[in-house]
Fold:
Amino acid sequence: MSKLVELEITDLAFNGKAVAHLEGKVVFLNGGLPGEIVEAEIYRSKPRYNDARVIKIIKPSELRIPAHCSHFDICGGCTWQDLAYPEQLKFKYKQVKNCLERIGGFDDVVLHDVIGAAELFHYRNKMEFSFHVAEETGFTLGLHHRGRFDMVFDVEECFLQAPIANRLVNWMRDYVRQEQIPVYDVKNHTGYIRFLMLRVGKRTGQVMVNVVTNYGEFPNRRSFIKSLKSEFPEITTIVHNQNGQKSNIAVGESEQVLYGLGYIEEKLFHTSFRIRANSFFQTNTLQTETLYRTAFEMLDPQAGDDVLDLYCGTGSIGILLAQYVNTVVGVELVEDAVAIAWENAKANAIENITFYQGHVKDFLKSWEAENKVINTVIVDPPRAGLHPKALKELIRLHPPKILYISCNPATFARDAARLIEAGYRLPEVKPVDMFPHTMHIEVISVFYAT
Ligand SMILES: C[S@@+](CC[C@H](N)C(=O)[O-])C[C@H]1O[C@@H](n2cnc3c(N)ncnc32)[C@H](O)[C@@H]1O
Structure:
């Protein structure tokens, strides 16, 4: 049963929520900034914490700024848009520090200030918009309500991607309505159209429209392509992905290119990369350059180095690094990403790089068996961090240097503690903010074998 209370917000949590205390229990709030007094509704009470939503701000924080976006109050995307950017960076710093100290047990590592982003808006090269069955209007096309996987609101204007993305979303909503294309219903798994995914090359301006649907051909395909192209001549490729699985993710089981080459190109420094609908590519192009530049400065690669680039995605780190070292071997689980990694190496005439498809843990086992010498290992795992078996194999391999790029300071701190136990030294950690207005933060570090 919900109840109304007055709370003082004291902090921001890892999940982006505000933190307060009530009768000895922590309260996590959607909305609110440290130093504020708010009226809040407690809507869930668990044994160790409460969940609440802010109803009214009684005393606003001095850190509060007006949010840029009209959807801010409900959108799950930018939870900290009402917090001044330098303050966002301070909270991210604190998060990393907490993880290093509490999870990793580190108190002597040098933690640098967060390297902030130059661009606070329009920084993403990829966005996914969901179609959702709605009672009043039939359906919505947009982003999820904050904290709700079962509610999607109609996005009119989002400031995260290039302005063409907004025009495309609004056009697509009208088109689906006019053509009466059935929208996929996540509750009973009926209907057809599921996601609109857009990629816009920040450096190149190339535009991909990817429509993700349930199984079956796209209705009146030719007329759809013609209308879309005539309205948006900037579009360089249109793809259709079919996914009939119940899990609600915008990745296709089978893909058909409806127009263009099926990929866009994006540039990092002087190197061009092909990106397809279903393969990983860092979403903030400009800040990726900052991330990689910082990582390479810390790594200090040498011409004679032989490098393993683990969790390599479409090969961007390895392809850039291969231009300065002896050899690079990239390892990636997703087959499609490996295929593009090869394509990207070829398109950039990089010949000293090889890619393997598979699990890092399995690859490392076979690599060790072959006893090939390498000087440097790069790991850039997903949020879960290194699989325990992958970490074990890495420690067994014992390279002189490990460059660890992480999108989750908690799993980073956990893995870092294991590396220290195994005889590595960690002098410094540099956080880089890839996603302004969200709680996400990347960290970079180099471990040295002692
Ligand atoms: C954070 S991304 C890093 C991509 C790349 N380093 C970059 O900067 O573009 C993590 C990548 O790890 C891949 N991956 C996840 N689990 C894996 C595993 N067990 N073995 C190999 N690759 C994996 C994902 O498919 C994804 O491409």
